[in-house]
Write a structure and sequence with these properties.
CATH class of the largest domain: Alpha Beta
Strand content: 15-25%
Structural class: alpha/beta
CATH superfamily of the largest domain: Type I PLP-dependent aspartate aminotransferase-like (Major domain)
Oligomer: single chain
Helix content: 25-40%
Bound molecules: pyridoxal-5'-phosphate
Number of domains: 2
Number of helices: 15
Length: about 450
């Protein structure tokens, strides 16, 4: 074997193939057809440095999907590593059911003035889907606790994605091959998604017509991520928020993807002048370090659950790892770093740069690029394959991975989710490599 870039032959004898075999023998990967797992050339990460992942053969990949939208400031950030280490010297985890933990209290205190939720209380969980599930149950019981009958339904949007629990997929718009679960889904009122310019008008009419039946409206402010980065304008979201307020319907903002700076503000709700009754956070909460999510409730919602000890007004729901101390410690340090490093300013600058570069990129490839959609650094580049079944999204991302930029598509939408701390050179590289990959696969 000679020096230089790995050839196909070298690849066959690489550590990569042995790890993929071991992987496929015992690990079942989510959203992945395991019969094609090896063939699709998965990256097997061994370590990371800053904005790059390093695989078992020592190859490096720029993390241009923020490890599926969770990582914010990169990997092995010394300050975040230190926060975990310091908390390890105190305690890793204790229960939040009926008891407290200093690290969790300090995190909630730090978050309270930053969330767009009035006088908030935080109910912690481990995954975004669990935070959504908690919000659904809180909204339902909120009305029951006050003796209001009939407010038992939810309004959700076309294209919605709120996680993979049965509650989450009921709110969700289906697709992704999840239609098999239709018999398990409970029905919701469905307004159109952000791909329909009239979505907010329809949502407002539905809220007006069905207010007495609605427990809550659930939406992803500004960007419907998993739908394929469908975007809307802040005014439309605000109008739907106003309709909720007017008709006394609770508003749940699912900021699991949009939260913690992705769209240029700490929360997308801020741009939409939204004050949700319940907000779901997850993904970037710990900077992508540890699984932590939370349902944030206003004082009004929280107070509806107060009553005598052991009474039925209590919210009988809680997860074993709720408020995990290691996660809380790193989440609190992460929030400080967002300020100390003025990360949101970088997001806005890099987003503007990305917008300009993608305009040029798409202009030069108008035949194969259908649309570029973006809010802040959350970006979808929709390809326009001439016929079905070409798997352009998959192939373009694979071509980018071969060039050392990690991408993963949603169908034929190539998702770009650069780290919040991306440098100008990294943004340039992502668009350059995307261009090369599109040209290779789509023959432009
Ligand atoms: C990712 C996501 C979820 C689910 O979060 P998990 O941590 O994957 O369970 C929920 N809502 C939105 C908007 C998401 O993007």
């Amino acid at each position: 074997m000679t020096d230089g870039p790995a050839t196909d032959e070298a690849h066959l004898t690489s550590a990569h193939d042995r790890w993929v075999d071991r992987d496929a023998a015992v690990v079942w990967h989510g959203f992945t057809q395991m019969s094609c797992y090896a063939e699709n050339q998965p990256v097997i990460v061994e370590s990371a440095e800053g904005h790059e992942l390093i695989d078992v053969d020592g190859r490096r990949y720029l993390d241009a999907i923020s490890s599926l939208w969770v990582t914010t400031l990169g990997h092995r950030v010394p300050e975040l590593d230190q926060a975990v280490r310091e908390q390890l010297d105190r305690v890793a985890h204790t229960t939040l059911l009926g008891n407290g933990n200093r690290a969790t209290i300090e995190l909630a205190e730090a978050l309270a003035p930053r969330v767009p939720v009035s006088e908030p209380h935080f109910l912690f969980a481990s995954d975004g889907a669990a935070a959504v599930e908690q919000a659904l149950k809180i909204a339902f019981q909120y009305w029951a606790n006050q003796g209001v009958a009939g407010r038992t339904r939810y309004l959700a949007l076309g294209g919605a994605y709120h996680g993979d629990t049965v509650g989450g997929i009921s709110l969700g718009a289906g697709g992704f091959g999840t239609d098999v679960f239709d018999p398990l889904r409970f029905g919701v009122l469905r307004a159109p998604g952000y791909d329909d310019p009239g979505w907010a008008d329809t949502a407002v009419s539905l809220i007006t017509a069905h207010a007495d039946e609605l427990a809550a409206v659930v939406l992803e402010p500004l960007v419907q991520g998993a739908a394929g980065m469908w975007v809307t304008d802040p005014d439309s979201v605000e109008r739907v928020g106003d309709a909720c307020r007017e008709h006394g319907v609770l508003l749940v903002a699912d900021e699991v993807a949009t939260g913690f700076g992705r769209t240029g503000t700490l929360f997308a709700s801020e741009q939409c002048r939204l004050r949700p009754d319940l907000m779901c956070i997850g993904k970037g909460l710990t900077g992508g370090y540890l699984p932590m999510a939370a349902t944030v409730a206003t004082r009004r919602v929280y107070r509806a659950f107060l009553g005598p000890d052991l009474s039925e007004k209590t919210f009988y729901h809680g997860h074993s790892f709720s408020g995990n101390a290691l996660a809380a410690a790193v989440a609190r340090r992460h929030l400080q770093l967002l300020d100390e490093w003025d990360v949101l300013a970088n997001v806005r600058e890099r987003a503007a740069q990305l917008g300009l570069l993608l305009e040029k990129f798409a202009g030069e490839r108008s035949g194969v690029v259908a649309e570029v959609r973006r809010r802040g650094l959350m970006t979808g580049v929709e390809l326009a394959p001439p016929s079905d079944g070409l798997r352009w999204g998959r192939l373009v991302c694979a071509a980018a991975v071969r060039r050392g930029v990690l991408l993963r598509p949603l169908g034929d939408v190539v998702v770009l989710m650069p780290l919040l701390s991306s440098t100008p050179a990294e943004i340039e590289r992502i668009v350059e490599v995307l261009g090369e990959a599109v040209d290779e696969v789509c023959g432009t």
